[in-house]
């Protein structure tokens, strides 16, 4: 299994073997490729972006890209992870209002995510990966390892740490699954719904689904 699926940095081996100077050069090339991938999607969209186009944009050889990422999907899973970094999705340093409900906290998280989709290629990349995953086992494995397993903990952690969870017997795992399903559905079928109002609607639906019903 490739290092990126295990959450390890693709340059870790080079750092150990080649010394600090080689690692710095490798990191610059690596960053140039990631930046080039973002620029290509912003300009032409995910589907039209090829590994060859990214290599040309970065001034790198195609084999350099394949040395670090086994496929276009693997590259863009990492690119999406860079754009949707936890530090961006986490709330600002200012403390949340003490009376903020779980639904409000979850809606705020989703609003930050949707803002990212509107202001960067992150949404286009995720939509492209989801579309390809439907018919390609390799892409599906990349999305499963790098996005579903690697990113879902943000929602679970938020829900599990909120005081409303115990009093309302809410299951964080169900909230997470419903949120992923609804966000991905909206991203593919109704991207115009990725608004603050849409965030509140998804948060309410997910929490309702995760509560016991008489």
UniProtKB/TrEMBL annotation:
PROSITE patterns (UniProt xref): HTH_TETR_2
Bilayer-spanning residue ranges: none
Pfam families: TetR_C_11, TetR_N
Regions recorded as binding DNA: 50-69
InterPro entries: Homeodomain-like_sf (IPR009057), HTH-type_TetR-like_transc_reg (IPR050109), HTH_TetR (IPR001647), Tet_transcr_reg_TetR-rel_C_sf (IPR036271), TetR_C (IPR011075)
One GO MF term: DNA-binding transcription factor activity
Record domain HTH tetR-type: where: 27-87
Signal peptide: none
Keyword Transcription regulation: yes
Alphabetical list of PANTHER family matching this protein: HTH-TYPE TRANSCRIPTIONAL REGULATOR BETI (PTHR30055:SF234), HTH-TYPE TRANSCRIPTIONAL REGULATOR RUTR (PTHR30055)
Protein name according to UniProt: TetR/AcrR family transcriptional regulator
